[in-house]
Amino acid sequence: MSGGRPEGFNELLHFPVRLSIVSLLAPAVHVEFSFLREATGLSDSALSKQLTSLQEAGYVEVRRTGRRATAALTAEGRRALAEHAAALRALLGTAFEEPPPESPADESLQR
Question: Which residues are in the HTH arsR-type domain (predicted)?
């Protein structure tokens, strides 16, 4: 972990909108632009800007056929998403595990 961030942490993907986009692309081969727009609630221009950022990083491929556009996660994008997810799990550690049951001694400390 360097600078408080585990290895694989990806600043580009960590931005919530981009993380939502790659998460929507991950289980699919190609996703319609219109589906991404509706699922994210972004305007056409905002979605295009985010897809361009992801495309420039090599994480997303955008195909245009006439007026229709689709997006797909590249192999590099899948790898980056997997590494970022692993980094988030490492960062969170045991945060979502069940806490151990309280003992009577713990209760007396809270009073």
Answer: 7-94
pLDDT digits (tens, 9 = 90+) for 36-84: 999 999 999 999 999 999 999 999 999 999 989 999 999 999 999 999 9
What tokens appear for 99 in the block? Answer: 């806490």
- Pair 108, 29: CB distance under 8 Å: no
Q: How far apart are CA 44 and CA 56, in angstroms?
A: 18
Identify the CA nearest to 32 among candidates 81, 15, 17, 40.
40
List residues bridging with 69 in a β-sheet. 64
**pLDDT(94) > 90:** no
Return d(Cα 24, Cα 10) in angstroms, integer. Answer: 17
3-class SS of residue 56: helix
Over 64-78, what HEC string results? EECCEEEEEECHHHH
The C-alpha atoms of residue 57 and residue 111 are separated, in whole angstroms, by 54
Question: The tokens 């595990």 sit on which residue?
Answer: 97
pTM of the model: 0.78
